[in-house]
Each structure stands twice: as structure tokens, then as C-alpha cells.
Amino acid sequence: MITNTNHLDGKVAFITGGNRGIGFETARELGKLGANVVIGARDLQKGEAAAETLRSEGIQAESLKFNITLAEDRQAAYDFFDQRYGKLDILINNAGVQKEIEHLSPMNQTSTVSPAVLYETFNANFFSLVETTQQLLPLIRKAPAGRIVNLSSALGSLTLHANPASPIYGVKLLAYNSSKAALNSFTIHLAHELMDTPIKVNSAHPGWVKTELGGKYAEIDATEGSRTSVKLATLPTDGPTGKFYHLDDELPW
Ligand SMILES: NC(=O)c1ccc[n+]([C@@H]2O[C@H](COP(=O)([O-])OP(=O)(O)OC[C@H]3O[C@@H](n4cnc5c(N)ncnc54)[C@H](OP(=O)(O)O)[C@@H]3O)[C@@H](O)[C@H]2O)c1
Asked: Which protein family is it in (predicted)?
């Protein structure tokens, strides 16, 4: 059981796609720091099971039915945080999809990737994420020091993709990579709009993480993979905004 008080007491965090993988571990770590964590899950039963696991560890956790692509779920999320907390301190835009690897061999079918895969990927990773953030922003403005963390990927870096010496140079998944590049653009643009507010907006590369999305050959576990999200969610007043990080390392756009 967690008995210490610490710096996230009184804060509420919403983690989309928080029922498993990096999102679940991010919820756990923020909860250990004292935050009330709300797990967004498109399957409410899975969300509630995840929240129950955290509650059994002494964390203040709730679940909310949240499919990022559904306008009614985005509205319901706004209503939930408005009525229950009157604010939102931390938004972890974690839910994301990667729909290409199972179809791809070799890892570059840029000339043939289907419009459906492009659309579904952008819908979850970019359009719906932008709409979620826009919808919840009035509540984030009501928090004393809002933090928005966008789960991007090193695969979203155009600079790394253009560099033959980069370790990700060969991983050319057009839909996923360009959706994360677009998300990085959102980070820069929103941080610019909010630069005169206490709100900080940053992109996170979690590392290559053993999850359903990352696969079994990935390098780190989901707890390690949550570190960058937690770090960016708990930035101090003089911390960065409009940047792209993996742990303490700033990544090129
Ligand atoms: N794993 C890596 O190596 C890696 C590397 C770089 C970046 N990332 C990014 O990190 C984030 C988390 O990835 P992960 O590895 O933890 O993936 P994961 O284990 O596959 O989990 C993805 C989560 O997103 C949820 N989700 C998918 N579509 C959704 C939708 N339409 N509405 C709401 N939730 C939805 C899933 O819900 P269900 O359980 O219902 O499917 C699940 O909770 C993603 O944005 C990913 O792009 C991961």
C-alpha cells in the first residue's frame, strides 16, 4: 500500500488506452505518485479490471469507457471530468494503433499501402487525438499547471527517417510513421498557442517497448516504457514545452 504523500496529490490524470501496455503502466506510476488516475478504455470491462488492479495496490483509480474515435465518448469524457473534478491536470494521449506490420514484408510498401490503413491509422493516432485534446482543453486550462503528453514515436521523426545512419532508417511504415509525424506537428502548434499559459505540451518516444504494439522482440518492458510519459506529465514550472523527448534526451523532429 502507498502511504506517503507526494507531489501529485489532488491532481487528476486521464490516460487514454490505459487498460494495457504503456498506458496501464503510466497510470500505475502516476497513481503511485499520488494522482487520481482515470483509465480510458474502449472496452469498459477491461478498463474496470485495470482500475481494480490499481486500486488493490492502493492507487486511486477509476475507469471510463473511451473509444477515442467516437465523438460521444469524447463528449462523455468532458462531462465526466467537468462534473467530477471541474478540471483535468494531466492528459496522456496514449491510445494508438499500428496496422501495417502484419501486412508488411518487407517493411516498406509505401507505394501500395491501402487508403483504409492510412485512414484508420490517422483517425486514431491523429484526428481523434486532436479532437480529444481540443474537447478537454477547457478543463486542462482550469488546472493550475496542465500537462499534455502525446505518445509519439522515434518513427515519427522525419530527420531520423532521412538519415541512412539512423537505427530506424529501414522501418518505413508510411501510415504509422506519418501519423506520428503529424502528431509531432500538433505538439509544436498547440505548445505555441499555449506558450503564455502554465500548460506544457510535449511529444514522448517511450522506447521500443514489449507490448502488443511493440512486439516480443522489443527492448524494454512497459514499466520502463512509461518513464518518458511520467516525466513529461510531472514537469516542473520551468520545464520544456513543444519538445520531443525520450527520457532526458531531446529527439529531432
Ligand atoms: N510499444 C512500442 O514500442 C511503442 C513505441 C513507440 C510509440 N508507442 C506508442 O505508445 C502508445 C501505447 O502503445 P503500446 O505499445 O502500449 O500499445 P498497446 O499495448 O497495443 O496498447 C494500445 C492501447 O491503445 C488502445 N486503443 C487502440 N485503439 C483505440 C481506440 N480507438 N480508442 C481507445 N483506445 C484505443 C488499446 O485498447 P484495446 O485494449 O481496447 O485494444 C490499448 O489500450 C501508442 O500511441 C504507440 O503508438 C509504442
From this structure: Belongs to the short-chain dehydrogenases/reductases (SDR) family.
